[in-house]
Write a structure and sequence with these properties.
Layout lengths: L13 E5 L3 H12 L3 E5 L5 H4 L4 E4 L13 E4 L4 H13 L4 E3 L12 E5 L2 E5 L6 H14 L4 H10 L1 H7 L3 H12 L2 H7 L3 H13 L1 H5 L2 E6 L10 H7 L4 E4 L5 H4 L7 E4 L2 E2 L2 E2 L3 H13 L3 E6 L9 H10 L4 E4 L4 H8 L13 E5 L11 H4 L5 E5 L5 H10 L7 E6 L7 E6 L3 H8 L5 E5 L6 H4 L8
Length: 459
């Protein structure tokens, strides 16, 4: 983070704009909208700028005396030497200074602003790309309607009343999220504030509704944050606690709410931070404390993610939960590796299996896996690769059957090694891939040779 994003109260305070042209006029306008008094200094000042209500114009060259009593400075001249001098003197006086389009001389950056007062959103690239920040603002402008200002004002009016009813800060945050993400918000946005008030009071009178915890079982996908669902992102921002696995990539964990507690419960081969039964008990305990718990799992929670075991425990304890599917590793990793899982010329069916069973063996239905014209996807099969290849050959698949192993698929560290059932174990010895990996067996692997020149994600 190159700059600390803050919102400064400048109502009634004197701010200085050095410059008298169009850019200076725009900057003065922003300061005036925030309630400041504005002093403008320049040898020549646009009459329209001088005429702005709240502006005091001084037609002079800038000098240090113009900084007296000033809370904030913006240099907006077309003379780099003057701008640098303004920056130097302001910094010597410990006054925040912004030099337009010159990050090197700034102590703060003027962001692109989306105004839904009292809701405000500011965008900044640290001066690297003002055009990009304006584009991002435009995207959000289209997503957040103007009448969201009503919702923010409604919440402000009832803030103290809710504090009196709900004294616990964590529970109060949950209460407001329920109110602002449900029917109360819809009534405010449509102008029915009396109806919204009645519903808000009903929620305050329902103590069980305030203190009840909940668990979100969310699939984080195979690694690329772009593959998260909208619903997953929304719940990731609501949770008080994040319980996450080893297979969840760091960029995805970083997208959860910044102030949420994070608990790592990842499992690696022969190295379990917590046993599954302990994870189940942890989810129950946190929910009983009234917290919103995000159980973040790599891939899809119901495909070798043990999500079924976790919700069995939650259901037995009468704890409400939501399940959000994720893109499973089979489809995500295969896609980024350029290997379609089915193709009418190669495979009419696809089987998902885990190469690491509960007892640590690789005791699979080999006859079913060794059928022709199908794709087999093996999760957690790296350490059993020799056994996998040998058993498939033993049960009827030709040694020349194509096979691929993909390490850290969909991420920037993705590596793909292809071969046949006969030679892939030797190729893996050379490549030394490490978990997490996914193994794909079948004729579809041949298609990677054709697709890798056109697929934007291929290595």
């Amino acid at each position: 983070m190159d700059f600390l994003p803050i919102f400064m109260n400048i109502k009634g305070r004197l701010c200085l704009v050095v410059g008298g042209g169009e850019v200076a006029k725009r900057k003065a306008g922003v300061l005036l909208e925030a309630g400041a008094r504005v002093r403008v200094v320049a040898p020549e000042i646009d009459p329209a700028l001088s005429a702005m209500d709240g502006v005091t114009s001084i037609v002079q060259r800038f000098d240090a005396t113009h900084l007296e009593g000033v809370m904030l400075v913006i240099a907006a001249t077309n003379d780099r030497a003057v701008n640098a001098e303004v920056s130097r003197l302001a910094k010597e006086s410990s006054i925040p200074v912004n030099v337009v389009d010159d990050p090197e001389h700034c102590s703060f950056i003027m962001p692109a602003i989306m105004d839904r007062s009292p809701l405000m959103v500011a965008f900044s690239s640290g001066g690297a790309s003002p055009v990009l920040t304006r584009m991002m603002r435009g995207k959000l402008e289209s997503m957040i309607p103007q009448n969201f200002s009503r919702l923010a004002a409604f919440a402000e009016r009832y803030r103290e009343k809710v504090k009196q009813y709900v004294t616990n800060p964590a529970k109060r945050r949950i209460f407001w999220e329920n109110a602002l993400d449900g029917v109360v918000a819809e009534k405010v946005l449509t102008g029915d504030e009396s109806g919204a008030e009645a519903m808000l009071q009903a929620m305050l009178n329902d103590e069980d509704n305030i203190v009840r915890g909940e668990v979100y079982l969310v699939g984080a996908g195979p690694g690329d944050p772009d593959l998260l669902t909208f619903r997953a992102l929304r719940l990731m921002q609501k949770a008080d606690v994040v319980v996450y696995d080893n297979l969840v990539s760091k960029p995805i964990v970083d997208m959860t709410r910044r102030d949420a507690e994070r608990i790592y419960v990842g499992k690696k081969r022969a190295d379990h931070t917590l046993r599954q039964e302990e994870i189940n008990a942890l989810l129950v305990r946190l929910a009983h404390e009234g917290k919103r718990v995000l159980r973040l799992k790599g891939g899809d929670p119901f495909i070798f993610g043990r999500g079924g075991e976790e919700i069995e425990t939650l259901a037995a304890q009468n704890i409400p939960f939501q399940v959000v599917p994720g893109i499973t590793a089979a489809s995500g990793v295969a896609s980024y590796a350029g290997i379609p899982l089915t193709h009418r010329d190669y495979a009419q069916s696809c089987m998902f299996v885990t190469g690491h069973l509960k007892d640590g063996t690789m005791n699979l239905d080999w006859d079913a896996l060794a059928r022709p014209r199908q794709t087999v996807v093996v999760y957690m099969g790296l350490h059993g690769l020799d056994t996998l290849c040998a058993k498939l050959i033993e049960h009827g698949l030709p040694g020349a059957t194509p096979i691929a192993i993909v390490q850290q698929g969909t991420t920037q560290n993705q590596r793909v090694v292809t071969g046949t059932l006969s030679d892939l174990p030797q190729k893996q010895e050379v490549a030394q891939l490490h978990a997490p990996t996914l193994i794909i067996v079948g004729g579809v692997v041949k298609l990677r040779e054709k697709l890798q020149w056109f697929h934007p994600h291929l290595d």
